[in-house]
Amino acid sequence: MTDSRIHIPVLLDEVIAALSPREGGLYVDGTFGAGGYSRALLQSASCRVIGIDRDPAAIERGRALAQEFPGRLEVIEGRFGDMDRLLADHGVDKVDGVALDVGVSSPQIDEPERGFSFRFDGPLDMRMGRDGPTAADVVNTADEAELADIIYQLGEERMARRVARAIAAARREAPIERTARLADIIRSVVPKGKGDGIDPATRTFQALRIHVNDELGELRRGLSAAESLLAPGGRLAVVSFHSLEDREVKAFLRERSSPPPSPSRHTPVTAVAAHHPSFRLLSRKPVDPSEAEARNNPRARSARLRAAERTEAPAFPASGKEAA
Ligand SMILES: C[S@@+](CC[C@H](N)C(=O)[O-])C[C@H]1O[C@@H](n2cnc3c(N)ncnc32)[C@H](O)[C@@H]1O
């Protein structure tokens, strides 16, 4: 049996092909994780890599990998949404490629103490980094309507109201502090899906994880930060795992790669936002895992890669949606 705590990189060949690393280039691996992408980048060209992860355990693994590639890999603890500022602190303002492989890593999900999984009992934590409220804080303090919104919007759980009501009733008895108790509360009100074998707790756990780590906000900020950092010709490769994330990436790249609207006779020239595309899509369609990869690595099944090349045009002004 393979050790499930070993993280098998998803769409690895496809990501490296999209980044097309070159000799002397500088690449950012914004979701260092177990270092799968960083290692492959370092092996495919004599380039340098800066790995970023908000999880101190990933940074620890990164230090070991850095020793294998002296002077070529640096790992920084922080959020990729801040990557422009993090890199500026290291004297870097332009890079040749940025990879993002969003979501959780196998070591995070399979370590009960991290509190991500409904399959093992552990403290209800779910934070990838060290700071901010835990899932237990959210579950025990958010009001019932807010909980229902989180579960509906970020988990796409149709029975969100029912789950929120059950959580509110259970926490009146005693605070919910363990993953197993939360999973049981959810299972008591959400029936098992017919035929798909999906645990009824899946969608609520996903929602809490995305909320606790502000994953969609991070993604928006990370995409804009990558746009500012990439040199002309630099490549962006983003792997996402569910439709909410993919929607963000698709909308960002569609906006940044579309030609500016042509001014009409009725529109004053000054009112037309003349943004020239800051990205060129590498392919219109996202790249999905091959059948073999999906068979061998269940985590890969829902993965999608979108990739684009930075043009010479200036970065778009911040839309405000990226705000923390
Ligand atoms: C799917 S894993 C990446 C695996 C990696 N590509 C590999 O091959 O080993 C995602 C990693 O990104 C980190 N992460 C997620 N969101 C982050 C963020 N906003 N900033 C920094 N790291 C983040 C997680 O802590 C986790 O270690």
Write up what this structure looks like.
The chain is built from 13 helices and 7 strands. With about 325 residues, the protein is of the alpha/beta class. The protein has 2 domains: about 10-105 and about 215-324, Vaccinia Virus protein VP39 (Rossmann fold, 3-Layer(aba) Sandwich); about 115-215, Orthogonal Bundle (DNA polymerase, domain 1), CATH 1.10.150. Helix 7 (about 145-155) crosses helix 8. The mean pLDDT is about 95. Bound molecules: S-adenosylmethionine (SAM).
Counted by DSSP, the helix tally is: 13
The side-by-side strand order for the widest beta sheet comes to 3-2-1-4-5-7-6
Structural class: alpha/beta
Please give the domain count: 2
Strand content: 5-15%
Shape: globular
The name of the CATH architecture of the largest domain is 3-Layer(aba) Sandwich
In terms of quaternary structure, what is this? single chain
Between the first and last Cα atoms, what is the distance in angstroms? 42 Å
- N-to-C SSE series? HEHEHEHEHHHHHHHEHEHE
Name of the CATH class of the largest domain = Alpha Beta
CATH superfamily of the largest domain: Vaccinia Virus protein VP39
Radius of gyration: 21 Å
Mean pLDDT: 93
**Percent helix:** 40-55%
Cofactors and ligands present? S-adenosylmethionine
Unreliable spans: none
Number of strands: 7
